[in-house]
Amino acid sequence: MKAMVKLKHLISMVLALVFLFSTFTSASAFKTQGIVTGRLYNELSTNLTAFQEFQDLKLGWIRIEFEEFYGVPAGSTFTSAAVQANKTKFQQVIANAHSKGLKVLGVIANSAIPDIPNFPNTDASIQSFKSAVQWHLDNYNVDAIQIWNEPSANVKFTNTNLARYAKTLIEVYALKPQYPNVKFVGPATANAEAGVWLGQHGYGYDPENSIFNSTIMLNYRAANNGKLPLDVISWHPYGTQGDPNGNFYFGRTFATYYNEIKAYTDVTGRNVIGSYPIWFTEYGWDANLVGEENQRIYTERMIGLIYARPQIEIPFLYGFRDDEDGPGTEDKAFGIRKNSLFGYAKKRVFYPFASHSSIVGLFTQDGVNEWTVDQIIDKYLSSGGRAAYGDAYRHSNAPWYGDKAHYWGPGNNGIIQQFNNGSYGECGILLKVGAANAYLLKGGFYTFYVNNNGPYAYGWPTSDEYYDSATGYVMQKFENGKLRWKSGEAVTWVSN
After folding, report:
1. Span of the secretion signal (predicted)?
2. 251 CB contacts (<8 Å, ≥6 apart)?
């Protein structure tokens, strides 16, 4: 009987662990991350440094805005020498991205096309724009194309001609059969407001001049079984630069705001978004407006909210670096790194973004308490990154932690993040709570440490491994002593 009770108890424990493990892993599945690169095409066409960081961060996508006509002489055409030079740069950027396993979302807006007379207010001008889009698709091996950017905030598309943008989307989507592997993305509105969606939701816009309630869009959907002339619905949820869990958009939380947009129906009662995948092709906070610490906190919380909504397929953080221009510029300080005036230094927001994309550091679904461990992420990126560490993994002694950093040691006085499948093999980054630096533990030292009670027996590491020329040993220091090894000998412990 006692044996049966013990067996039942063991089975209950195993089932509990299986449930806990499956619940944890399903709740924390990582999304593909993207980032907006800004005007870095000169650098990105000649230098792979930023791409290496994108790869170390395990990003899936970058967003580039085609600007062949930016800064070129007036009256230039696609065959002009200056435009051709810019085209060559963009082609190299895309090739570099693909060489690092990144996909590319290209954006076509004002500076990607020559001046088209009367665009978009005549059908002939829309056909000229369509030809310009086709030129881009013929010349650039992009994985997705965004048709315009923030049309509701753009001089070409005002609140009185958004039906013309609907026609533009329809005409451009007619190219889809020629480019079946390219995703067509839109409408990429800022906050999904300004009459773009319904035009009848209390903001004073004429429904006929919204995109989805325009006659041409209603007729298109009626003739195409309710489909939109898009593969992906996108918008830019900037809100009013408030806390996504608080006053995100005129007194509404992000959750309320998102649910309102998801529930939008056109004048026929048909839901607009339906089951279409959603991309946030920009989101973020301006540190000049909210401060660097709130930029970090709000981004942390937003990532958690995005995780909880599986229809949001790919979020693109805006952006990689702060704008190079001075105070008063439009883009300001949205970057995860500062600009060249500050040596491209990491900002606090870098760490939750890196934690999310690299599967490095602590993670909580609600963005509260420990989210990222800055020192662990810095160590990971400065000592080999993805190639050296491989992937975060579930240690067999503690599967319930999933693949995240977790507390360990007496009174949970330290944190360990474990990795495998990189050039270091099975390894870990360790940090004592309150310490300034994290340290790498790998090879025989890692195996010895984790299999012999680690911090309980030896304390936390106080150095990386190093070669001691006086003794001929490879060593690593810990609070209570050091580990040492030389060829032909086993790893041994030497107490202080």
Report:
1. 1-27
2. none
| Residue 285 CA: distances (Å) to CA of 10, 132, 188, 352 | 50, 32, 17, 13
Question: Exposure pattern of 163-182 as b/e (b: 16+ CB <10 Å)?
Answer: bbbbbbbbbbbebeeeeeeb
Half-sphere exposure of residue 491, counting CA atoms within 13 Å on the CB side?
Answer: 16
Are residues 420 and 322 located together in one domain of the fold? no
What is the 8-class DSSP label of residue 15? H
Using DSSP, state whether 322 is helix, strand or coil: coil
Q: What is the pTM of this model?
A: 0.79
Q: Are residues 349 and 396 in the same domain?
A: no
Compute the distance between CA of residue 10 and CA of residue 367 in angstroms, rounded to an integer: 35
Only one residue has tokens 């010895």, namely: 448
The CA distance from 438 to 415, in Å, is 9
**Residue-level pLDDT at 337:** 93
SS3 61: strand
CA atoms within 13 A on the CB side of 442: 19
If asked whether residues 266 and 154 sit together in one domain, one would say yes
What six digits make up the tokens of 210?
A: 């919204």
Q: Are the beta carbons of 154 and 110 closer than 8 angstroms?
A: yes
Residue showing tokens 């059908």: 123
Q: Strand, helix or coil at 426?
A: coil
Q: From CA 362, how far away is CA 95, in angstroms rounded? A: 34
Could you give the CA distance from residue 304 to residue 315 in angstroms, rounded to a whole number?
Answer: 12
Phi, psi torsion values for 430, nearest 5 degrees: -120, 145
DSSP-derived letter for residue 31 is P
pLDDT of residue 198: 54
The ranges of the chain with pLDDT < 50 are: 1-29, 200-205, 328, 330, 359-371, 397-402
> What DSSP string describes 69-107?
TTTSPTT--TTSHHHHHHHHHHHHHHHHHHHTT-EEEEE
CB 439 within 8 A of CB 477: no
Please choose, from the candidates 104, 105, 100, the residue with its C-alpha nearest in 3D space to the C-alpha of residue 57. 100
Number of domains making up the chain:
2
Are 346 and 407 in the same domain?
no
Q: What per-residue confidence (pLDDT) applies to 377?
A: 81
Q: Helix, strand or coil for residue 243?
A: coil
313 with 459, same domain: the answer is no
**Residues linked to residue 477 through DSSP beta bridges, in sequence order:** 482
Contact 73, 86 (CB under 8 A): no
* One domain, residues 325 and 391: no
Encoded tokens for 372: 């990222």
> In a 3-state reduction of DSSP, which class is residue 261?
helix
